[in-house]
Amino acid sequence: MICPEITYPGTLIDISIYGALFYASFIDNAVPGTRCVLQVLNLKEDMLFQVNGAIAHTGQSLVGIEFAPLDHALQSRIRQITLFNLAPPGHAERELAALLKPKPTTPPDSERINRFQ
Fold this sequence. Notes:
With 117 residues, this protein is α+β, with helices and mostly antiparallel strands. The protein is built from two helices and seven strands. The protein has helices spanning 72-84, 96-100; strands spanning 2-3, 6-7, 11-15, 19-23, 35-41, 47-59, 62-67. The chain is globular, with a radius of gyration of 16 Å. The protein starts with a strand and ends in a 17-residue tail after the last helix.
């Protein structure tokens, strides 16, 4: 992710045509509303595509990025990548808020209810 005056190397956690969730081990001066460019690279570090956006949320080394409107070709590229990564149909159409929701956690064994007793 590239913001004014700084580049944040990291890992793309989740993506849709509306935004992305990005992990960076350090996030200095990443302020919601700051414009940025998300560059998506393959394992050989070749750029697959880049998207203009703005930081929507930061916290715990995670950055939520809201994308500027995408053209049809870029929307198709994101849909293709999500399908290649075995995401269910419609995964690429999720709104940004869905990307920022915390993942449900499994309760500890002591709090689980055995439904088969």
